[in-house]
């Protein structure tokens, strides 16, 4: 474990939550009073700077964690989780789109197109992994069993997402939490999160004609792949959580 990761685990959950609440209150007041419109991405950026400040003396020791990403087994695990999650996520989006169309509501996919690419691909993976895996997961382990710590931190992460993405976000969060626990390297879940968001944005750009949501043959194929991916992900989660929990006894 790097000195960066040791320092990260010691960051106070109370201190982090206080900062996030204060930043969101400031955002709300500034936007409500029309003083200036602040996007949530700036809160994430400030949170990243908070983490840099807290680990300032050991910040550059993260180099060893980054170099570990070249490990073949680590990359294989990351890519497997990302690819399976992409298929599973689209399966959940199909279900969400179907339910919203039944209730005559507008679907939620257009909001994804308006999100800033840099924020989605770079800022969110770094800030969210530092928050939910780096602090929440580590701190929760001190007061509840490991499996519960993984589930609770993953539920909190999923709560940030829209209706169509909550369940798939929860499953993805559990998977990256497992990757973090196995490697003890925060760069691993950040990489997985980065690749997941990158591939998702690339698919959105390439699918400008919405073939994935209008072509019955394509939708059927992706749905089958989504079901298969979900089964494989569940097998991975059950197996790895049992192994990790056993090793922690």
Radius of gyration: 19 Å
Total number of strands? 0
Which percent range describes the beta-strand content?
under 5%
The structure class reads mainly alpha
Gap from first CA to last CA: 19 Å
Poorly predicted regions are 104-115
Order of helices and strands: HHHHHHHHHHHH
Helix content: over 70%
Main pleated-sheet profile = none
The average pLDDT value, as a whole number, equals 88
The number of helical elements comes to 12
Brief rundown of the structure:
With 249 residues, the protein is mainly alpha-helical. 80% of the residues lie in helices and 0% in strands.
Describe it.
By secondary structure, this protein is mainly α. It is built from twelve helices and no strands. It is globular, with a radius of gyration of 19 Å. About 5% of the residues have low confidence.
């Amino acid at each position: 474990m790097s000195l960066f990761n040791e320092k990260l685990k010691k960051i106070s959950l109370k201190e982090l939550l206080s900062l996030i609440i204060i930043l969101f209150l400031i955002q709300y007041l500034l936007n409500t009073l029309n003083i200036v419109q602040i996007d949530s991405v700036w809160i994430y950026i400030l949170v990243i700077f908070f983490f840099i400040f807290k680990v300032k003396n050991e910040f550059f020791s993260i180099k060893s964690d980054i170099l570990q990403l070249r490990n073949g087994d680590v990359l294989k695990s990351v890519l497997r989780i990302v690819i399976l999650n992409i298929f599973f996520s689209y399966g959940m989006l199909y279900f969400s789109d179907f339910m919203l169309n039944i209730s005559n509501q507008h679907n939620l996919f257009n909001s994804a197109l308006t999100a800033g690419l840099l924020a989605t691909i770079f800022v969110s993976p770094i800030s969210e992994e530092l928050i939910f895996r780096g602090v929440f997961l580590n701190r929760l382990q001190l007061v509840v069993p490991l499996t519960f710590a993984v589930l609770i931190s993953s539920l909190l992460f999923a709560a940030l997402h829209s209706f169509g993405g909550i369940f798939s976000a929860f499953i993805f969060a559990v998977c990256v939490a497992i990757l973090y626990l196995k490697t003890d390297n925060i760069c691993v879940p950040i990489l997985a999160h980065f690749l997941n968001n990158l591939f998702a944005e690339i698919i959105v750009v390439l699918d400008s004609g919405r073939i994935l949501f209008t072509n019955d043959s394509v939708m059927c194929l992706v749905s089958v792949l989504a079901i298969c991916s979900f089964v494989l992900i569940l097998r991975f989660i059950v197996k790895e959580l049992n192994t990790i929990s056993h090793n922690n006894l």
